[in-house]
Give the backbone structure.
Amino acid sequence: MSQPSEDDPIGGAPDADPELVGSDSGARRNSVTWVIAALLVVVLIVVLILALI
């Protein structure tokens, strides 16, 4: 295997650009929001099914 050269974009790759990566806390908060919303929809559907029986 050859050693990566200085101009090799893969071998000498720096850390990811912070602007492209974004904030972990914001992404986590967004995921939690979607999970809670999905759970509320499921609970609502179950309640409606039980109410109509």
